Amino acid sequence: MSRRDYYHILGVGREASSEEIKKAYRMLAQRFHPDKNPGDQECGERFKEINEAYSVLSDPEKRSTYDRYGYLPSVRDFEDYSNFPPFSTGFGSLFEDLFEGFFGTGSRRTRGQRGADLRYDLKVELSEVASGTEREITIPRHESCTACLGRGTRKGTQPVPCPTCGGVGQIRFSQGFFSIGQTCTRCQGEGRIITDPCPECSGRGRVSVERKISLKVPPGVETGTRLRIAGEGESGIGGGPRGDLYVQIEVLPHPLFTREGDEVICEVPISYTQAALGDEIEVPTLNGRHRLVIPPGTPSGKSFRLKGKGLPNLRGHGRGDQQVRLVVQVPTKLSARERELLQELASLEQAAAEQDSKGIFDRIREKWS
Question: Which superfamily is assigned to 59-251 in CATH?
Answer without folding.
Answer: Urease metallochaperone UreE, N-terminal domain (2.60.260.20)
